[in-house]
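> tool_call: predict_assembly(chains=two)
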Amino acid sequence: MSIVEHTFSLIINTIDRAASLRTLLNALEQQSYPHFEVIVVVGPTHDDTLEMLAEFGPRVRVLHCPSANLSQSRNIGLRAARGEIVAYIDDDAIPCYHWLAQLNQLFANPHLAGTGGKVYRINAETPLIQHHLGIASGLAEQLDARASWLDGIVPNGLSYQWVARMMGTNMAYRRRDLLEVGGFDEFYQWVYDDSDIALRLANAGKLLHPVREAVVYHAPASSRNRQVNTAVGNWWIQTKAAVYFSIKNGPLGGNSWRDVALRCLHLWHGHLLWYGHLRRNKKIGIWQYSKMSLQEIGGVWSGLIQGLRYKSQQKQPLVTYDNGHPLIVTPEQLMNNSNEPIQPFQQADSAMRPAVDPLNGRSPLVTLPEPPLRICLMSMAYPPHQYEGVGRLTNLMAKGLFELGHTVHVITRSKQEGVSFYDGAFVHQVPVRQERYIAYRPYPRLHSVLNYSHAVYERVKQLILNDGIQVADTPLWQMDGLVTAVSNTIPTLVRLVTAAKQIADLQVEQDTDARLLGEMERTLIERAHHIAPNTRATLENVRQAYQVELPDGRFTLIPYGIVPVPEEAIRPFARHNPPQTFTVLYVGRLEKRKGILDLFAAIPRVLQKVPHARFIIVGADNSEQDGFLRQKGVRYPQYFQQKYPQLTPYVQFTGAVSEEELQAYYQSCDLFVAPSLYESFGLIYLEAMNYAKPVIGCRAGGIPEVIDEGVTGLLAEPGTPASLAESILTLLQSPVKLYEMGLAGREQIIHRFSHVQMARNFAAVYRRMIAAWERESEAQHGL
Amino acid sequence: MTQSLSAADILRDIEFELVQGALTRDDLGQGIQAVRLYQNRLRHKVFQSGREMPPLRELIARQFQLNDMLITLLQETAAAMQETQLRQKRLAQWQPASAHPLTAAIPFPNEDNWRDEAELQAALNEPLTIKMEIRPGRLPLIGTWIQRLKHEVHSLVLFYLRKLGDKQAAINQIYGQWALYFHTLHQQQQREIHQLQAQLAELQAQLNQQKSNSEQR
């Protein structure tokens, strides 16, 4: 089947949603398929929709609908459309990058009358699949099949007739077919319009074929019919539409009038029960409850009368308006009247437009010299639900890349499939069924990694198809991108962190599971198109652990970055008026590896010379896990208190604290100390530097690459309390150094360690990878 | 097995999973579209308002047509599956001399694992029957007459339904036979794969032997 480039008329029906409409129009600039016009049909609006639309000039055809009636508005758009295909999308949704391209491909089948794809609700709080391969019955039952009809799942409903159905926010029809059945039934002012048109097209012998692809991301906004995220709404309109729908379509599909009556009663009764439930749960007040219940009676009555009236007419007239007077026209007349070419929406610079936040419409204020990238980041754990190292870093990368105008998709693990938009990125939640790689069940960690990595790969394929991602980025930790890298379907970058083998060696793990995990990490590094270690130390450790060749061209050193706090949040003391008491802060788990015992041993030496110093130790006690409790019989805080009882008033143990409290500790301290015996990078130093605090770490791992010795802080010898005490004393006894090093650290955050700078570094590497990938593809095709 | 497992084995399994997933849905999708189109056109014909219901004979003929289309789809799917199995064979041939430890670990398909064929055959041969269910009438005087009338009407309906059931049972038998055939084919292919693997290992061993002999010389 050869691919014909159809012209599309994209019809958007809107009332009082200027902000989300602007978001949609901005997102349409980035569609990969350019042959489309945009028609916006504006209902009786009270906001600045028309002024906003004027900014787009002739690129958007603006039409007016006299009433708040969705079907009428859809028909107005349909009659004015010039494209061969009409596609409908809600004003509070945005399509995926290849939406129109995929629809165009589907319409290559000349018999296809209508199609549409999946709809994801992307609110961060309640992400869910809103629509997927839907079906509707003649008795107003709408089911989301979530499986191919080939699976033989026949829905358990009352009706005998079920047809494929597309959701109103993601549906496209061949214009001629839609006109032939008379367009949308204008009785449906809000819902059931999409199911009704599906039934009518199917009954007219047309082919409807909803698909899994061609995705639309929906961020439902409040309208005059319902308040989003509440139970308040004109639900009686649904009842009215459903009753009318059942009377109109039920008997046609072979249902008896008894079934129709039963269905209507069920609908009505169901709504009343629901109102009662809302009332009992105090979601609505007594007045609201009474009003809604009374409105239901009106809804049923209106649906009943209009339904019976329709049965007597049996004809769907196609109406157009001449100076407000309705005129009945034939589909042929409309087809002939609309033979003018479409006015393309996109402009020459459309491809250069930065990404858009679909929830608040924000686009970063950047001018891009090249088209923005479409990037896929992977992280098994990801905020806001899971907040750990790799997830946090991935989140910072996503934020930074969005600020540079790129579109970011993050794949993370979840119990349920869903997509949300959070902190500048589409977060794709992937459930994992442990059904593949059964032979590896005896090795639970490897088995889990393989299955998760395969699930990630499946999603990557969808993202290539729908969202046109160009590059994938995976952490080495948990190997999210292992199968993707092996499949060689997309250029893949691996972010190096501490290798599993290193950890296994540290913890003296010798089992096959750990060995195989290590070998797969090595495979991932070998298969990756590029490597991004955070420090040279990380790179060297991985090289040593896996004996892997990593020549200069294969890796790029990219240090981590964090979000700089606003200037007003920084509170350095006055340079020539230092405080009477200095506060030294430690942040980290209380365990041997973090050097907590070295700090304990250094504290008395410091207090001996600087008695006005105070120590705050923030972090959860980890003595049970690291074996200290077993060995000494006490936890770390008690150990300190028993060993140095006279120093107890000078040292405060806070335990684990919230993110807000942590930031407050960083803000209020004078010196930050974290004498870890090893850190591949050490984000904690950056977090202290962010608040203009000097830092002290150890000469180990990647720490010397983060702390600029003598400029932003000092380095002590690892595992040497005397050296640590000396470093602390050097700074505490020289407030000017404290002050200057703090400010120097802040400078480095802004210019070297900001999340945007980190994203800029990654983006540059991605561009090189994509270019190399394209060259390779071209060379292969040439062969 | 534990000792011999390596990254290369896992990689091979990942590649096998990738090949399995590569089964394109395009052809299948077109097939489904064709069935849907036919069904919708039929629906249009049957339920078009103002038109008399087509005779039962025509309806059954159309139903058979739909069944045929579904069978074709089934065949296409089976062909695609065979293609995957072929690729699997090819993949297996790429293995080094020693038999793949994981494949070796997978239990050879046992007849017991498969649902008893005789039982399946019996289920397929079983006619589709529907029992008559009539609620007893409670009306005085005319209750018995209504009961008798109901019985006659139900008998008539059941007569045609049973005829239809017989036809459907015949179709089910065809489906079932195909499924059994594929199962047998699958087993046969499994045996072939194992034989080929053993042969390959033998050949590789011979080759290694020859190499070491020539090196010694």
